[in-house]
Write a structure and sequence with these properties.
With about 400 residues, the protein is α/β, with parallel strands linked by helices. It has 17 helices and nine strands. The chain has helices at about 5-10, 35-40, 40-50, 60-75, 80-90, 105-120, 125-130, 165-170, 175-195, 205-210, 215, 230-245, 280-285, 300-310, 325-340, 355-375, 385-400, and strands at about 15, 135-140, 155, 200-205, 250-255, 260, 270, 290-295, 315-320. Helix 14 (about 300-310) links the parallel strand 8 (about 290-295) and strand 9. Helix 8 (about 165-170) runs antiparallel to helix 9 (about 175-195).
């Protein structure tokens, strides 16, 4: 097959998006205005870097459109620029740029009108997911997994509702060991209740392991009797959840590689050479599955190596600054060489509206099609095996782990 044919074949494959922020209370699933697309965080950062005002939403509309056009034109080499143009062209039938590759205020006006009109259509969200065969979309809040506009598409990998309250109790107690045992029993009950309604896994806080490293991993065997530090309390709660999830044959979703306190304005991917190898004792201690969703590009090989070694470790989608064409290419190469396809999910769009879910998955499918085209052309995979791997990565591996069904 030629490159174009590979893109067509991959486009038809089903997708399981393993991490989004869609369907939050008060936030519609479709974009309501042009600015819901233009001000998506990941793309907005690029605009800021070329002079787009931080207070752009407060500007008069004409001034904001002109500022956006100037910044958008200055970033026209980036992949996010390409994705925004593709969203506008594919979904609304309008070009954001003219024949010379530049955008203007008038084009933004036309797109804004089209976006408002589509958002009012009850079937709009379904038409968007159908374009890329998006079958399931996961969120980290149980109450947000019911997508009214997209029945049957939502999936939950919830966080622990009791986390905040138990953290406060551990930090405020003069007898943290006693509180720890009470938290353990509460976690067991709560995890059992989730499993009873069909939930297969939970998102477990990885931040204490980022902060405490090996000390946080070993903490469960040496929990302090008093003067508990916040990272120690956080780590203890994560250990408790790993134990409860193991008891019920569930998995933990761990988001790694992003430090939250790099600056007042943003979190950032931070390279820590032993970030994942320091977690090996967790992989060995607990029988629950552990899905590694990585935000730091240098951790892709380490995550693949862990999934290759440990039967309960899986690799998930690329996240934050790891969502790049270059890092996807490296991650795909590492995974196809060494990780069984059934242990790898590659889509975590982190989208806030369905249009960005479309745009980011479109980019992943392009990259995957080109990657498989090269694998077959160079003789590493047959066409049938390449399509099987692609389907596992896009949908089936996640579907088995998250909902126990493969369509």
């Amino acid at each position: 097959m030629k490159r174009r044919e590979w893109r067509e074949a991959i486009t038809e494959l089903p997708v399981f998006d393993t991490h989004t922020h869609l369907n939050m209370p008060g936030v519609p699933i479709p974009a309501q205005t042009f600015w819901d697309i233009a001000h998506y965080f990941w793309f907005q950062q690029e605009l800021w870097s070329v002079g787009y005002p931080l207070d752009a939403p407060a500007l008069p509309e004409v001034a904001r459109r002109e500022a956006f056009a100037a910044a958008f034109n200055a970033a026209r080499n980036t992949h996010w620029h390409l994705v925004v143009r593709s969203i506008c062209h594919d979904l609304y039938g309008l070009a954001l740029t003219d024949e010379s590759g530049l955008t203007t205020s008038d084009r933004i006006v036309a797109l804004d009108a089209a976006i408002r009109e589509r958002a009012a259509q009850p079937t709009w969200a379904q038409s968007v997911v159908d374009r890329l065969a998006i079958r399931r979309i996961a969120v980290n809040t149980l109450a947000e997994a019911d997508f009214v506009e997209l029945p049957g598409i939502g999936a939950a990998v919830p966080t622990w509702n009791g986390h905040g309250a138990w953290l406060a109790r551990l930090l405020g107690s003069s007898e943290p060991q006693v509180e720890l045992e009470a938290a353990r029993e509460a976690a067991r009950r709560d995890v059992a209740a989730l499993r009873a309604i069909g939930i297969r896994g939970m998102r477990v806080a990885a931040e204490p392991f980022e902060a405490g490293g090996k000390a946080a991993v070993a903490l469960i065997d040496n929990y302090p009797n008093r003067h508990v530090a916040p990272w120690q309390a956080e780590a203890a709660l994560s250990h408790i959840l790993f134990d409860a999830l193991s008891e019920h044959g569930m998995f933990a979703q761990l988001f790694l590689g992003i430090e939250r306190d790099v600056s007042p304005r943003t979190s950032m991917a931070v390279d820590v050479p032993r970030r994942i190898t320091d977690l090996y004792p967790l992989f060995e201690r607990y029988s629950c599955g552990l899905e590694l969703v990585v935000g730091s590009p240098t951790d892709n090989m380490a995550a693949a190596q862990a999934a290759r070694i440990y039967p309960n470790v899986y690799v998930g989608g690329l996240w934050w600054y790891n969502f790049r064409a270059s890092t996807y290419a490296d991650a795909m190469q590492a995974r196809v060489e060494a990780v069984p396809a059934s242990k790898s999910a590659i889509v975590a769009s982190d989208a806030r509206c369905i249009e960005w879910c479309y745009g980011k998955i479109l980019l992943v499918k392009w990259l995957l099609a080109d990657f498989m085209h090269r694998q077959v052309r160079q003789g590493w995979l047959t066409k049938d095996d390449a399509l099987w791997v692609a389907r596992e990565w896009l949908h089936d591996a996640a579907a088995r782990r998250y909902v126990s069904t493969v369509a």
